[in-house]
Amino acid sequence: MQIKTHNTTPYDDQKPGTSGLRKKVKVFQSPNYLENFVQSIFNSLDDFQGKILVLGGDGRYFNRRAIQVIIKMAAANGFGELIIGQGGLLSTPAASNIIRKYQAFGGIVLSASHNPGGPDEDFGIKYNVSNGGPAPEKFTDTLYANTKTISTYQIAEIDDVDLDVIGESTVGGLKIRIIDSVADYAELMAKIFDFDLIKQSIAAGLITLRFDAMHAITGPYARQILENQLGAAPGSVFNAVPLEDFGGGHPDPNMAHAHELTEIMFGDNPPVFGAASDGDGDRNMIMGANIFVTPSDSLAIMAANARSIPAYAKGISGVARSMPTSQAVDRVADKLSLPCYETPTGWKFFGNLLDADKITICGEESFGSGSNHVREKDGLWAVLFWLNLIARKRQSVADIVHEHWQKYGRDIYCRHDYEAVDTEIANGILGHLRSQLNSLPGKSWGENVVKYADEFSYTDPVDNSVSANQGIRIGFTNGSRIVFRLSGTGTVGATLRIYLERYERDVLKHDQDAQVALAELVEIAEQLCEVKKRTGWTAPTVIT
Ligand code: G16
Known about the structure:
GO terms for molecular function: magnesium ion binding; phosphoglucomutase activity. This protein is of the alpha/beta class.
């Protein structure tokens, strides 16, 4: 195997965001752009010679090309073995599982998650460490520093590898294993959930379901598990073939983008259960007949009912949520006397808590939830959790949600996104908010009296690392909150996210429409941040 060292010059825009580096495909196709980033990953690692690297992606445009480059670079840099999903496909949670199961040194996951795919759309790459989770900030900081000084990269002069045939081969000293993308993951799910019970409920007609794979990675996983193993009717899983451009859609499982599913669930004769997952299979949207479950409520309901699931029957050690996620899960933790952690946005912040067994279940408002079974959020896991719960409780999704609200109260919640805002305007909005923080406590709008106004900073309780500037929080004495932050996953301009939350104890008011219930907070948010005034826009681009 001949190894070549190429000279290169740094790019100045390779700073990883909330979850790895995400850019337009065209940017990744710039000379040496991908090679620079991959070499910088390897330059940030120690003692990986001869060890295992897992490789896979969500199948979007440029996935296959990038995998061939990474194989050659991994060979040149001295990895001993590559485990690659067939066709170059691995969902993000499946990749996390494989890293853990085969005790790999780490993994490279190729995805831009819920962002659109295709030659003119987005691509992404991130590094996961040996616990199966996204690399922590300390690593991504080193990686970014390396991207700014890189001067050479190594690549092996070998033929492209056939990604489509399962099996083992050796090139130079490098072992390459192409594995079934689904099998290990399906086996793990069967250990966590009561597949027999779910199967019986489906066979008895107690559960009917539709799952929208959005032409993305979960199609093969969902078909295998939901249809082949659990017996859901053929066709229950739709948009099931992963396409390089996701069929031209936006593989983001919310009611705006998974509109086909939404129409089914709010149409005539809806099934008992509906769900969707995103580009790389780590996000989920949960629905029942005529009901959408917010991710924050879903997390709280899962935490409250964890003992109904075989893997968590003995109880859970604690829970965590990202800061902008609603406080619904806090109420469950309080009642069950469980530790509850508030982390910055980004799954990587849950890793230490999970490793130290401080938490078992965690989740985010951004349609992500998961547990200690892997170190990524896991879309199908959440779907199976709900199916297991429905089968155990023999209740509809709506009844489960209403019963939960009755017991804990409802945290009425929604998020307004202003996408692709001019970066200068977005930074101006944040600056304007910052300048008001000291003067806000005590200020009131009707019953909403500001209790605190700050910029969230997190100290990791395991390694004491500090992550500052993680979003602006305005908390009111009645429990309401408004949170502002800029997204770390977009690829065009800046995306301002406004998170709105109001607590309602009164059962008679639980059925209110969230937009109506939150209208007052929306108005306060505008007065504080002036997004409409400063952009000239009249409404958010997406409401979830
Ligand atoms: C990623 C992260 C999540 C985060 C989400 C949104 O998800 O893994 O932890 O909540 O981005 O981040 P932001 O608000 O910064 O856009 P995914 O599914 O895109 O990998």
